[in-house]
Amino acid sequence: MHIADYCRSETTIGADDLIYAPFTIAAYAIYRLFLSQFFLKPLSLLINEKLRYKFIHRGFDLVHYVCSTILGTLAFSQRPYFHCPFYFLDCGKYIACTGPKVVCSHLEKIYFFFFASYYLSDVFWISTTKDIKMLIAHHFVTITMITGCALVARPVGGLSIMLLHDWVDIFLYSGKVMNYIGLKLISDILMVCFAASFIYLRLFGCLTILITICTQQLEQPHHAKLYFIARCAFGGLYVCHCIWGYQIFCALKRIFFNKDSIHDTRSDKGSDKEKAE
């Protein structure tokens, strides 16, 4: 079988697949350490010393989101619900339970574990950011939601949330990295794209998915309580988005009315010198 045909062919995700999670998390953590130490750290020597710590960690985030966005978009491209992460208003017909297990393509399964491994292994690096409490809450509800969607065999909602997350964050972290290397104009453009995509995808898009999931009266033949927990986690995730959305609106207000500079409201922790102090 050709590799493209294999990636498009259908498989399943179930509780028995979760035994692989510790191995994928460990492999991802090793991959992150290797890339950070042997690629990003040497590259950071080319920029301002105060920005090197930020460049290494946010640079890895950028590499991850570029890979994850490409992988997720390719995974969705051959599916009938390809448009759902970007326009979910007519996707109610796709959120039904697929049976005892999630039915998806092999590429979607790879994407699921790639996405989940990043979020679960990120606990070891979460102290590299400033907004630690919010990120812990965000990661917890995100993992609870997508794992719940997998176990109750309702993949489209969870996978759609995953991909729209990636499309927003690719603008955020590319904007940060451009700022660190001194390309301020490109950084400003990317941060504006981040704000626009956040408002559309994470505020409007997530809300339409949440409303659809909560209002569609479809039978859940198994794990009904777990499905309830997954929906509650999704509600918690949307609360996180609303808090960040409020911060973005406040930042936009300062930019337009107080002539403040464009910047990320979820800034990183300090530089190497600041950490030493």
TrEMBL record:
<dbReference type="Pfam" id="PF03798">
    <property type="entry name" value="TRAM_LAG1_CLN8"/>
</dbReference>
<dbReference type="GO" id="GO:0005783">
    <property type="term" value="C:endoplasmic reticulum"/>
</dbReference>
<keyword id="KW-0812">Transmembrane</keyword>
<protein>
    <submittedName>
        <fullName>Longevity assurance protein</fullName>
    </submittedName>
</protein>
<keyword id="KW-0472">Membrane</keyword>
<feature type="transmembrane region" description="Helical">
    <location>
        <begin position="185"/>
        <end position="214"/>
    </location>
</feature>
<keyword id="KW-1133">Transmembrane helix</keyword>
<dbReference type="GO" id="GO:0050291">
    <property type="term" value="F:sphingosine N-acyltransferase activity"/>
</dbReference>
<feature type="transmembrane region" description="Helical">
    <location>
        <begin position="226"/>
        <end position="246"/>
    </location>
</feature>
<dbReference type="InterPro" id="IPR006634">
    <property type="entry name" value="TLC-dom"/>
</dbReference>
<dbReference type="InterPro" id="IPR016439">
    <property type="entry name" value="Lag1/Lac1-like"/>
</dbReference>
<feature type="domain" description="TLC">
    <location>
        <begin position="53"/>
        <end position="257"/>
    </location>
</feature>
<dbReference type="GO" id="GO:0046513">
    <property type="term" value="P:ceramide biosynthetic process"/>
</dbReference>
<feature type="transmembrane region" description="Helical">
    <location>
        <begin position="18"/>
        <end position="35"/>
    </location>
</feature>
<dbReference type="GO" id="GO:0016020">
    <property type="term" value="C:membrane"/>
</dbReference>
<feature type="transmembrane region" description="Helical">
    <location>
        <begin position="110"/>
        <end position="128"/>
    </location>
</feature>
<feature type="transmembrane region" description="Helical">
    <location>
        <begin position="55"/>
        <end position="76"/>
    </location>
</feature>
<feature type="transmembrane region" description="Helical">
    <location>
        <begin position="140"/>
        <end position="165"/>
    </location>
</feature>
